[in-house]
Amino acid sequence: MTPRDASDDSRWSDLERPPLNIAALRRGLVREGGLWRRVEVVERTGSTNTDLVDLATAGKAEEGTVLVAEEQTAGRGRLDRNWTAPPRSGLFFSVLLNPSEVPVTRWGWLPLLTGVAVATGLSRAAGVDTALKWPNDVLVTVGGEERKTGGILAERAGEAGVVIGVGINVTLRADELPVPQAASLALAGAASTDRDPVLRGMLRSLEDWYGRWRAAVGDPLVSGLQETYAAGCATLGKTVRAELPGDRAITGEAVAIDGDGRLVLATEEGVQEPVGAGDIVHLRPA
């Protein structure tokens, strides 16, 4: 990780993309009795998830640590896909959580919880409508088409910790998109693309939802998480293909999110099959 000297304005390679204000972030997020205890911003790193997992495993990070990178050179999504973007064009951060009072069997809800929190935070702070593609993609609408503007990746950190990484394209321009199906908040017409309040909004929302979920001992119904996720999930009601491990695939209508956070598909054979892992492809109507 390369720390940034906040006074070093010579690093501003793009004046339309100023660096994050670490002092303001700490003032707005770190408070007595709150979840966020430490906020760090680095200029450049391979992956904030990898760095924070390593710190947590070595006992050098506590719950509530937030690590943000202005640029990631080896960011990872699900299924080991690469995630790259120009410096300061997005928000790339990881958080360390330790939900010790929640049964491990319910930890699978954490990526979905983060999706709900991110969507809520973006709506409030950026003024942009979002949807969630199961299990962990954040979608915005550009030109009448739903496109991916962000993703979420959860990884275990030792026996008691979970590191959750979030990547959101904020000011990425059309000519900078890695694939045509990608998007950014700016391309979706967001009311604000100021990264400081957008980041604070997402982290405050995550603190709120994580607190509700912990207070309910991870119960997705009692915490309201299951209902809220389903309400914002763009996958439900669509015909999809689930590409599963072992080169197996299932096609059907996505009809529900079950109590374990799995996507339930109704197949042509009349079977309702839950999918807990895999790549989901939204199929266009015939």
UniProtKB/TrEMBL annotation:
It is an enzyme of class 6 (ligase). Residues 40-214 form the BPL/LPL catalytic domain. One of its GO terms (molecular function) is ligase activity. InterPro entries: Biotin_CoA_COase_ligase (IPR004408), BPL_C (IPR003142), BPL_LPL_catalytic (IPR004143). PROSITE patterns: BPL_LPL_CATALYTIC (PS51733). Keywords: Biotin, Ligase. The keyword Ligase applies. Pfam families: BPL_C, BPL_LplA_LipB. Its EC number is 6.3.4.15. CDD domains: BPL. Coiled coil: none annotated. PANTHER family: BIOTIN PROTEIN LIGASE (PTHR12835), BIOTIN--PROTEIN LIGASE (PTHR12835:SF5). This is biotin--[biotin carboxyl-carrier protein] ligase. The lineage of its organism: Bacteria, Bacillati, Actinomycetota, Actinomycetes, Kitasatosporales.
